[in-house]
Amino acid sequence: MELKAMSKSELEGFYKQACEEYDGYKAKGLALNMARGKPSAEQLDLTEGMLTAVSTNAECYAEDGTDCRNYGIGDGLPEAKKLFAPMLGVSEDEIMVLGNSSLTIMYDNIAKFMVFGTGNGAEPWSIQARDKKLKWLCPVPGYDRHFLITEKFGFEMVNIPTDENGPDMDMIEKLVAEDDSIKGIWCVPMYANPTGVTYSDEVVKRLAAMKTAAKDFRIFWDNAYCIHHLNDTPDKLLNILDEAKKAGNEERVLMFASTSKVTYPGAGVAVMGAAKANIDYIRSLMTVQSIGPDKINQLRHVKFFKDFEGVTEHMKKHAALVAPRFAAVLDELDREIAPLGIAKWTKPNGGYFISFNAMSGCAKRICQLCKEAGVVLTGAGATFPYGKDPEDSNIRIAPTYPPIDELKTAARIFALATKIACAEKLLGK
Amino acid sequence: MELKAMSKSELEGFYKQACEEYDGYKAKGLALNMARGKPSAEQLDLTEGMLTAVSTNAECYAEDGTDCRNYGIGDGLPEAKKLFAPMLGVSEDEIMVLGNSSLTIMYDNIAKFMVFGTGNGAEPWSIQARDKKLKWLCPVPGYDRHFLITEKFGFEMVNIPTDENGPDMDMIEKLVAEDDSIKGIWCVPMYANPTGVTYSDEVVKRLAAMKTAAKDFRIFWDNAYCIHHLNDTPDKLLNILDEAKKAGNEERVLMFASTSKVTYPGAGVAVMGAAKANIDYIRSLMTVQSIGPDKINQLRHVKFFKDFEGVTEHMKKHAALVAPRFAAVLDELDREIAPLGIAKWTKPNGGYFISFNAMSGCAKRICQLCKEAGVVLTGAGATFPYGKDPEDSNIRIAPTYPPIDELKTAARIFALATKIACAEKLLGK
């Protein structure tokens, strides 16, 4: 029965029962975590073979004889480029293979564009910011760490609503056509953080082809989950660089990915893909910054995976561990919350998150109740710029990290917290 | 006999003989390299044990139970801080242990100060640069990659002469007291690149205590060679952070070092030391940039070295390989060039370089002659800002990388090139 259809006394009874069950869990003094998109220890165990993939002095040499222990090779080993180019769908002269992590590389690119501009004589963003506040488009809900970067660099962030096809393209096209202070957009185009949505072909094509008032507008295409499928019916994403080339806008797109959730967070490698002119420009800026990335670690990845098929096979082992965790949370929500009509959530085919939208005005209260019962969630609002969810509705659930028994308990507590918060709202408590 | 004391016919004979010998080497089509301060393959072989120091899933955990394979620990593992704090002479809350490399961290700190300022409300350098050209002090000869960073960020670089005690402190004190557009200074205070000089206690104290017109003046103390001794009579360097604290200027000093030439260039770890307030400020900026460095690689270092004594013992093995290479070059210069009175050079107790000062106006020609005979040197002028050596005299010799037989040949060709270039100069050719 939907909560809104209940009489007041029915609702009071529902509320009392939920509170009693909740208090039972609270008394246990649990410490559970569904906050961050971290791989579980079992997932990390899958990569053990990489630790010893380069074990001797003789194994430290690249195919072309380069001693990977020494200086040089600023933008990545050729065999690492070959290995990861298919992940981004680019050629080997359109990719850089760098160190940990893609987040750091995105930050660093914005820092470079601030101080040096986007290339081809474009004025540095920090100079442009003298005369006007620069803006950045942020599809919401989105990734909190993206928003923190653009907030730190002083951009005014503009919320862009999203649906099952991706961000609202009518709104984006209108904004970027009129306002040359808009310098970029954050996109997690596949199994988006947190919605799990993969951008439709139409959205990708429109992003690639749209007219922008700013010539130095850049799409930060954080394809973090491009190979993180959960089942045998994965989503498909159009290659935006191909589309941008067709539209004559190839300079617009910067693609990022990493092995942080393939091998190890922290000890993975990050990749950046872009049109060759962009790669050349960014490489020219990097020569004063670095003598080269950790090539031994790149070689470990190459030797462990051998080829891109090796990477995708490895991801199936991750899926076997991650999919049951998603199912555990979704089962709980389907059974306990769906009949009540108080929330909606996504059932993604990949990625690391379930995006949960409760009745307006309930998200903070749900997180608070969870916290008091020992379940840590990403703070309500974190999926929006400045931490402000105008509806106080969205919560990002990260089911991957806890052991599955703990996760089931955490999901149970989350469902109870949702029941309580929504009943309180309806009861005017 | 000194070249200047020769009669013209003696000098012509000397020149002819040198040219004949040089042509003999040139005909061999050699490919030798004394250009960059790279460890030799034998040196890199010393670290083989580190490759397998973390070999199993169970070995991936830090002392406090942290899973080093996963996200987190933004500023370094506690045991890595403990290991490397003595290298900089700081406490464990005055150090960050990061990834590869110290050059990247220095670049990144300047980038941060450009966009965000040095902390405590100081105006960002890029904002200050609207109204006046900012300046940076560069002791010369110095490290080309330092100069490239400050050139790229638009600083006007000011040459500071150096002698056997370090940079000219009278000049520095006068400049920084008067000019608030001077924002920093590059220092390689021990076994300097390229001079091999270690700053005297007086120089360190004066740098720490001097009055600066700019409150946001920063000393970039690149202590790259702090443990890279060549013999049993190492230089000693005063701890500048201690001195700065005594003078009430502790915010002034940022210290850097790395294991690039201890374990592996590229696959080493870099450290930054500073007063706690500086560390806290920089950490606060880093939270939006990184979720954490490569902790598995930090753990490899910890397990391989165990403690700082393990590091210093390891450095003795490096010295055993590097010292004979320095000796090979110095022997050649002592025997072939010293009697001629046409050049001076340093005989450092550590580091990676011999700084060679030829007769004025001869450095470019020496490098050209070497190149034509297959010996690559760092380009003449590279040890000065903008690549401009006003005397065209200084050449940086890097003896560490080539196998010793090749090095002896390269040194012989270098000596011949010096003879030819100086004789040409004196003969007015």
| CATH class (first level) name of the largest domain in chain A | Alpha Beta
Low-confidence stretches of chain A: none
Task: Give the proportion of residues in helices of chain A.
Answer: 40-55%
Average pLDDT rating of chain A: 97
CATH architecture of the largest domain in chain A: 3-Layer(aba) Sandwich
Overall strand count of chain A: 13
β-strand percent of chain A reads 5-15%
CATH fold annotation of the largest domain in chain A: Aspartate Aminotransferase, domain 2
User: Main beta sheet of chain A: strand number and arrangement?
Assistant: 8 strands, mixed
CATH superfamily of the largest domain in chain A: Type I PLP-dependent aspartate aminotransferase-like (Major domain)
Largest interface: A-B, 58 and 58 residues
For this entry, what is the oligomeric state of its chains?
homodimer
Global structural class of chain A: alpha/beta
Question: What global shape of chain A is seen?
Answer: globular
- The SSE order of chain A reads HEHHHEHHEHEEHEHEHEEHHHEEHEEH
The first-to-last residue Cα distance of chain A is 21 Å
CA-atom Rg of chain A in angstroms: 23 Å
Report the total helices of chain A: 15
Describe this structure in words.
- 2 copies of one chain form a homodimer.
- By secondary structure, the first copy, chain A, is of the alpha/beta class.
- Chain A has 2 domains: 3-44 and 312-427, Aspartate Aminotransferase, domain 1, CATH 3.90.1150; 61-306, Type I PLP-dependent aspartate aminotransferase-like (Major domain) (Aspartate Aminotransferase, domain 2).
- Chain A has 15 helices and 13 strands.
- Chain A starts with 7 loop residues before the first helix and ends with a helix.
- At the A-B interface, helix 2, helix 5, helix 7 and helix 12 of A face helix 2, helix 5, helix 7 and helix 12 of B.
